[in-house]
Amino acid sequence: MSVKERIFHMLLFEAIALLLFTAAAVVFTGDGALKMSTLALVLSLIAMSWNYFFNWAFDRIYGAERIKRGLKLRAWHATTFELGMVILSFPVIMLWLDLGFWGVLLFDAAAVSFFFIYAIIYNWLYDQIRFRLLGPIEQSPKLESKAETTSN
Asked: Who wins on pLDDT, 22 or 63?
């Protein structure tokens, strides 16, 4: 995936997630839309930074031919990404919502559950649509040899 496409992929993911997450957070927390949308935006900026570097590293390890990824690898991708997000988002949520450890843990667990499912569905749909519109992602020889090594 090119840098330009990786940025497009990330921005589209975050734009859809912002809308869905903000609406759900307002309903479930009872906090105002401004407070929750600002938190969602801050978390989105953290997620976009993490997303870019995480996906770059994941593609280097597992290969850039994303269309061939099965459910097991997609679940591993979503799980490891979300674990990183929990580590990065926990202190932000704690300070922003003035919650204790257990409150943040519950909020983060709900967010992780949402994003785990959303990430699998979004990435699968993106890969399917991208493949139909543009064809397979060309993989560099360097990445091909790494993918062969990790798949054996």
From this structure: 22
Q: Rounded to two decimals, what is the model's pTM?
A: 0.64
Could you give the C-alpha distances from 50 to 14, 85, 106, in angstroms and in order? 12, 8, 22
Sign of torsion over alpha carbons 50, 56, 58, 61 = negative
CB of 108 closer than 8 Å to CB of 82: no
Rg value, the chain, Cα: 17
Alpha-carbon separation of residue 83 from 37, 61, 137 (angstroms) = 22, 18, 27
Q: What's the Cα-to-Cα distance from 42 to each of 45, 72, 147, rounded to whole Å?
A: 5, 30, 34
Q: Is 2 left (phi over 0), alpha (psi -120 to 50) or beta?
A: beta
Closest of 39, 35, 95 to residue 47, by C-alpha: 39
Query: Which tens digit of pLDDT belongs to each residue from 56-72?
Result: 899 888 887 777 788 89
Please check whether residue 102 is in contact with residue 80, taking contact to mean a CB–CB distance below 8 angstroms: no
